[in-house]
Specification:
alpha+beta, four-stranded mixed sheet, 16 helices, 13 strands, seven-stranded antiparallel sheet, 46% helix
Length: 527
């Protein structure tokens, strides 16, 4: 949520960086500038994957010994990343009575973006040796901010039964509370907004939900659905033995409940391969490669052979690409969508607060729309692009993800909404200018009387050239006062005078009719 009430408040990430010793978030150093950080081949391959304008967005501008302007500073990366300390593992009990699964926390990060009030929580987890159905159930149930309802036993639907964040020594730091029906019902009733599960709330501290009464400068609200976007890297023993139904359940894991019967007549099922599969690296032969990509917009999943060294190589293999290139690809598409939703939300709020009968409300609305339009222009020229990479498979996956999220349609909708509001403000300003011009014209017309009257003084109608200065000043001030009163009266009655002029100028009516109509108009104006 925006900081401050005006002026030039500091960015959110700077406020988070000012935290004390109890602040678990620390900003990551720029790998391109910090000499003590390693820069390996995987970082290089990540960088060269993207086109130059995408590189400027992600990594900042390149350094040069020759600058166009000495006062022009080099642009930093538009992404500011903070990493959380103190959380080492996640213990999940997917269903009541199931054996808990413990996952290693690789990274927990907050990503902020310049010019846009958007932040991403990025949680990276890993685990080995899971049965296929458990992996699918885990992917389906984890990553939900709040329950969408409760079953007959009072457990949150679709959520993991219990989630616990653990410290390095095994201490439980936070526990999920999706079964606390009263908490979510009362929060939604009081704030007209869904709450958030306790374990996610703990993870995001010191950020607090905006509608809540809790104190905190860094406040947020979830911009869209409760189901967090999902990326998954799965190494299976034999990808060729996976049945089509299992491929379907895995590829549609964000929307298809593991216990639900497969909807065989659903277009997502019948056209699954053409809609959501990218099989450039799938040969279905012993020689391989046997790597499949699934992209539904909400989920991005890579499945490959666990026995192929190249697949799970952390430095040069598909796993290295997954953790570097593909995560950025997925992030950019969701950043586009989140930013557009923020712009749309701002416009809806501005229109909701508009009262056309209050000049202050109209002025505030104008300022908000112009500020939104300016921010949208910066977003368009800095962040919005259709070409991400010259590598065909990266570009194809980027286009697939963006299309499934509907980013192009959403962009056009937001652009049209901004254009409509801008045109409304322009037409309103033109209408006010036209009204002002008409009134000035009327005043000027009727001021001709005063001009002629004062001109008569210059014709020596009153021979007071030799009169004492006090007499001449008296005549001057009397004439000025009468002229000013006439002009003030003309301004006050400018609309009525304009209507009267329109009536008199209507040559399609007789003079008698025009005079009669003029009398009615004038009588109506007096009342």
């Amino acid at each position: 949520m925006p900081l401050g009430n005006g002026g030039n408040p500091q960015p959110h990430w700077k406020l988070l960086a000012q935290g004390g010793e109890d602040n678990p978030w620390r900003r990551l150093e720029d790998r391109f500038q910090a000499g003590k950080l390693d820069f390996e081949e995987r970082h290089y391959k990540e960088f060269v994957t993207f086109l130059p304008y995408v590189q400027r967005f992600i990594y900042g501008e390149s350094h040069s010994h020759v600058a166009y302007d000495a006062d022009d500073p080099l642009g930093e990366s538009a992404i500011k990343i903070f990493r959380r300390r103190g959380v080492s593992a996640l213990r999940l009990e997917l269903r009541e009575g199931d054996t808990p699964v413990t996952l290693t926390v690789e990274h927990i990060e907050l990503w902020f973006f310049d010019d846009i009030n958007v932040a991403f929580l990025k949680v990276e987890l890993s685990v080995d040796d899971l049965p296929f159905y458990v992996a699918c159930d885990l992917l389906y149930r984890f990553g939900r901010a709040y329950p969408t309802g409760w079953d007959s036993d009072g457990h949150g639907k679709h959520n993991a039964h219990r989630a616990e964040w653990l410290s390095s020594d095994g201490t439980v730091l936070a526990v999920s509370d999706s079964a606390n029906q009263e908490k979510f019902l009362s929060y939604t009733r009081r704030h007209r907004s869904p709450g958030i599960c306790a374990h996610w709330d703990f993870l995001l501290r010191p950020l607090v939900l905006d509608p809540s009464e809790e104190a905190g400068n860094l406040r947020y609200r979830q911009i869209e659905y409760h189901r967090m976007p999902l990326m998954a890297f799965l190494a299976v023993d034999n990808p060729r033995s996976v049945s089509r139904e299992d491929w379907l359940r895995l590829g549609m894991v964000a929307t298809l409940h593991p216990d639900e019967a497969l909807p065989t007549h659903d277009p997502d099922v019948t056209e699954f391969e053409s809609r959501y599969c990218y099989d450039r690296f799938w040969t279905d032969t012993e020689a391989g490669p046997n790597t499949r990509f699934f992209c539904t917009g909400r989920a991005f999943i890579i499945v490959g052979d666990a026995h192929a060294d190249y697949f799970h190589d952390r430095k040069r293999g598909i796993l290295a690409q997954f953790r570097h290139q593909y995560v950025l690809l997925f992030m950019i598409t969701h950043f586009h969508r989140a930013s557009l939703l923020v712009f749309s939300d701002r416009m809806v709020d501005a229109v909701h607060d508009l009262d056309i009968h209050t000049p202050q409300s109209i002025s505030r609305f104008r300022r908000r729309i112009y500020a939104g339009f300016e921010a949208f222009l910066r977003f368009t020229h800095r962040y919005w692009f259709h070409e991400l990479s010259e590598r065909s498979h990266v570009q194809a996956l980027y286009r697939m993800c963006s299309e499934h999220l509907g980013n192009d349609v959403l962009y056009q909708d937001v652009k049209e909404e901004l254009r409509d509001m801008s045109q409304y403000l322009d037409s309103n300003a033109q209408r006010q200018q036209s009204t002002t011009i008409v009134r000035l014209t009327v005043v000027t017309t009727f001021s001709m009387v005063g001009t002629v009257a004062t001109g008569l003084l210059g014709m020596n109608l009153l021979a007071e050239a030799e009169a004492p200065i006090s007499t001449r000043l008296t005549y001057f001030f009397i004439t000025t006062l009468i002229t000013a009163l006439l002009m003030l009266l003309a301004i006050l009655k400018s609309k009525q005078l304009s209507d009267a002029m329109d009536v008199l100028a209507d040559d399609q009516k007789s003079l008698r009719t025009r005079l009669s109509t003029l009398g009615k108009v004038w009588k109506r104006s007096l009342h």
